[in-house]
C-alpha cells in the first residue's frame, strides 16, 4: 500500500516509502552517535574507572592517558576496517542485507563489552568489534539513501543520517546523566552499553521491509526489479511506466550501459585519473577522503569524546550536564541543516560553516589559554558559549553535508569502493582525534584548539577549489558534470544537463522530440551516441551547458536538440 502513496515535494512526486526508507536507515546514524556519545560519560563513572583503570588516586582507580586513548580510539580502528570491507558486503549481498550484517556485528561488540569484568583490553576489543559494525553502516547507509531517494529530496534524506548521529549523541548524554547517580554500580555503564542493542533492532529487521536499491538491482540486470523499486520510491507502484520513473530509468540505463562496456570496477581504478573514460576518478576519490578526514578534524569530537573531561578540568561543576546542553544544540541545529542542504546546496554552507567554526574554536582556545577557567568563572562560561556556537555551525553544515557529498559524488561503477575509501578517511581522522586528544591536552592544554582553527580553514580551501555543486542533480548527472572540462568547482552551480530548463525543471518538449532522450529511452541515436544526458560511444562526457551561457543574444543548442528561437526564449525566461 505504501508503494502507491506519494507526496509532492519540490515539484515532483516522492513516494512515502522513500521517506520511510530514509528514516529507517538513518537509525544507523543513531548507533554511530550513541556509541560516540556514551564513552565521554562512561570515563567518569567510578565503577568503570575502578574496574578498568590503572592509576591509583585518592578517589580510586583512574586511567593513564595512553590507555584512555586506546579504549576510546580502538573503536575508530574498527570502524575504519568495517568501512573498507563494506563495499564487498554491499555489492555481494545487496544494500539491505549488508546493513543487517552491520547491525549484527555491532550487537556482538556490545555483548563483548557487557561481559567485561576487570580487563581494559576486554572492553577495548568490544569497542573494536562494535566499531566494525558501525563502519559498515557508515558506508552503507548514506550510499543506500542516495541510491534510493528521488533527486528532489536526496540531500535532505541523506542529511537525516547526520541528524540521527546527533540524536544518538544526545540520547547517550541523557542516559549517562540518568545513571550517574549509580556510578558506583556496574549497572551504570552496562545499562549505557546494553541499550545500544535495543536501539539497533529496528534497523536490522525493518530494513528488510523496504525496497532494495534500484541501482544495485539494475547493475545486476534485474531491470524489472529496478523499475518496480523505483516506482515504489516514487509512490507509483501501480504505474511503473510513469514519466518520472521512465526518466529515472533512462538516466540509470545510460550510465550503466557505458560502464558495462568497460567491465567491473576495481580498487585500483579508484586511483586512476580517467579509467576507461570515467571522468575525474582519482580526483573524486581524493576529494572524498579529504572532505571526510577534515570533517573529523573540524574538532567536533574533541568535544563529544572528551567534552565531559575537558569541562571537568575547566572547573565546571556538572560536566555531564554541559555535554547534555551541547548535545541538544547539536540535534536542534541539525534539523535546520536539513533545510540548509537543499536550499543553499553543498559548497557555500561548507565554506561559511568552516569559517564560523574556525572563529569560535579560536575563541575557545584563546580564552582557555589566556585565563585559567578553573580560577576564572567568566572564562569557563565563554568557553561553553564558544563550544555551543561551534557545534551549532557544525550541525548545520559540515555534519550533514559531508555525508550527502559521499553519497552523490562517485560513479555507480565504483561507488561502493570509493564510498568505503572516503569513509575510511573519516574514521582515520576520528581515530587520530580520539587517540591524540588526551596526549595533546596533557601537553599543551587548551592551545590544542588552535590546531583545529587551521584544519577548519583547510576545509574551507578544499571545498572552494575542488568540490562541485551537486544540488538538485540526479546521481547520473552529477557524474556527467564532473566530466565537463569547462566547468570549474566555483562556477559549477550554474551547470545544467541537456533537456532541462533549470536543475529543477525538465523541458518536456525536448524529451518528446525525435532524437531526444525521452524517445530514445536510453538507446543510441543515428550517430551512435547515447541519447540525452548519457555518454557517447567513445566514452566522452555528455555536452551540457551553464545557465549563464543562454542569454538574449545567444541561442544555446545542447547536443541532440535543434535550435529554435521559441525554445531559447523559454530558456531565457527560466534562467
From TrEMBL:
One of its GO terms (molecular function) is carbohydrate:proton symporter activity. It is found in: Membrane. Residues 21-471 form the Major facilitator superfamily (MFS) profile domain. The chain crosses the membrane at residues 12-34, 63-86, 98-117, 123-144, 156-179, 191-210, 282-304, 324-341, 348-368, 380-407, 419-440, 446-468. Residues 522-541 have a biased composition (Low complexity). InterPro entries: MFS_dom, MFS_sugar_transport-like, MFS_Sugar_Transporters, MFS_trans_sf, Sugar/inositol_transpt, Sugar_transporter_CS. Residues 544-554, 564-575 have a biased composition (Basic and acidic residues). It is a multi-pass membrane protein. Signal peptide: none annotated. PANTHER family: GALACTOSE TRANSPORTER-RELATED (PTHR48022:SF75), PLASTIDIC GLUCOSE TRANSPORTER 4 (PTHR48022). NCBIfam families: SP. Belongs to the major facilitator superfamily. Sugar transporter (TC 2.A.1.1) family. This is MFS sugar transporter-like protein. It comes from Corynascus novoguineensis. The lineage of its organism: Eukaryota, Fungi, Dikarya, Ascomycota, Pezizomycotina.
